Amino acid sequence: MMSRIISGIVLLVTVYIGISHGSRVFQRPSEQYLEMMDALGITDPMRIAFGVLSIASVLLILLPRTFFIGNTIRALLLVFLMALSLKAGNYTFALIEIPFVMMPLVLIYLGHPLKFN
């Protein structure tokens, strides 16, 4: 029972973060944001693809049947961003992303809060 509550809380936080970060690509980006993306080597089409994939993965996480694939996509996106930041020498950004990479992995471990065995 407690694991379902924790899973539900982590799921809600993941959904909020995924949608808020993914929806940023549809807003006018700040100069600082564009500089950071440019330093990571992320072009505008890549940035839009990341945003769409982020929102799509969160929507997949909401459904018990697609929960695993959504979390897997989300974890892979975050690891890819970490790899790009390490390549660019931005170690701080890579370290900041570690808790966010852990969230989908913890969710996979805990399982979907609404899935009944």
TrEMBL record:
<feature type="transmembrane region" description="Helical">
    <location>
        <begin position="46"/>
        <end position="63"/>
    </location>
</feature>
<keyword id="KW-1133">Transmembrane helix</keyword>
<protein>
    <recommendedName>
        <fullName>DoxX-like family protein</fullName>
    </recommendedName>
</protein>
<keyword id="KW-0812">Transmembrane</keyword>
<keyword id="KW-0472">Membrane</keyword>
